[in-house]
Design brief:
InterPro entries: Homeodomain-like_sf, Myb_dom, Myb_TF_plants, SANT/Myb. Its main location: nucleus. Keywords: DNA-binding, Nucleus, Repeat, Transcription, Transcription regulation. By secondary structure, the protein is mainly α. It is built from 12 helices and no strands. The structure holds a DNA duplex.
Length: about 270
DNA sequence: AAGAATTCCAACCGCCATTCG
DNA sequence: TCGAATGGCGGTTGGAATTCT
């Protein structure tokens, strides 16, 4: 078959999303989840293709997204992970809670790559430095990343930040390609979204508090965060504890990765 | 003050992987 | 087992915002 076009060009809107569209999408996902992206826009009454809705949700509307500038620690983490993983933005995003692959990709192309290049032009000056600067450590990022050394067993889990239907259990969403997901977020997203309901007076006011309140971002610890949010804690704990006797899920790899990157995996207390 | 150049990022495109009937 | 449908990913782009001249 010929591949179906991403959007039926006929009658479907493109370009920037309006606040009204955002609100419709948020309200719909809050109430019904997003079992089928293709069908969602029609059901929600949006003149968008499903792909556009999914991108808008995952890259912008998802309640667990951390807005704002990247901290130095985050940037450093990106550089280090990029050095190890290459342009696997979703994998990198999976290690930076609250950040999307798109965002990380943008930051890489707009800031970090330039910064690394700049530092590469004057590497000698820094060689005597006893402390390894963040830029210097990542000079090698410009060369071929050690992507091939990654174990085959590792699967991407970027979608682990994808929100889920409020009616669906976390187990339903930990299947498939995400089965190895360690930082798999369950219905925490929609749980917090639950406070943000249609009956609320300010439901259609997406202000800063929406992001901060809904997120409980403080539950995340950077850099190289392994720490769970409050609601996915159980899952992470069980992942880690089961890993202590069973390494099949690849946790060891990620622990090694963090150690190599000079990062401190944050373990939950239990 | 204004036009040009540059930066930044949201959104799109197209391909690949996975799921499902 | 196969093909269609769908989801996900990385690369790219358009245009708004910002900075420079």
């Amino acid at each position: 078959m010929g591949r179906a076009p991403c959007c039926e060009k006929m009658g479907l809107k493109r370009g920037p999303w309006t606040p009204e569209e955002d609100q419709v999408l948020i309200a719909f996902i809050q109430n019904y989840g997003h079992g089928n992206w293709r069908a969602l826009p029609k059901q929600a009454g949006l003149l968008r293709c499903g792909k556009s809705c999914r991108l808008r949700w995952t890259n912008y509307l998802r309640p667990d997204i951390k807005r704002g500038n990247f901290s130095n620690e985050e940037e450093e983490t990106i550089i280090k992970l990029h050095e190890m993983l290459g342009n696997r933005w979703s994998a990198i995003a999976g290690r930076l809670p609250g950040r999307t692959d798109n965002e990380i990709k943008n930051v890489w192309h707009t800031h970090l790559k330039k910064r690394l290049k700049k530092n590469q032009t004057t590497p000698e000056k820094k060689q005597n430095s006893t402390e390894t600067s963040k830029c210097e450590t990542s000079n090698s990022s410009l060369s071929e990343p050690a992507i091939n050394s990654q174990p085959q067993s590792i699967t991407e889990n970027s979608s682990s930040y994808d929100s889920v239907s409020p009616q669906q259990s976390s187990s339903e969403f930990s299947s498939g390609a995400d089965s190895s997901s360690v930082i798999s977020v369950d219905n925490h997203d929609m749980g917090t979204m639950g406070e943000y309901n249609e009956s609320s007076d300010n439901f259609f006011d997406i202000d800063e508090s929406f992001w901060t309140d809904a997120l409980a971002v403080e539950n995340f610890n950077m850099p190289g965060d392994f720490s769970p949010s409050a609601s996915n804690e159980t899952q992470v704990q069980s992942s880690i504890s089961s890993n202590s006797s069973n390494n099949d899920d690849g946790m060891d790899f990620w622990f090694d990765l963090f150690i190599q990157a000079g990062m401190q995996p944050v373990l939950p207390e239990f």
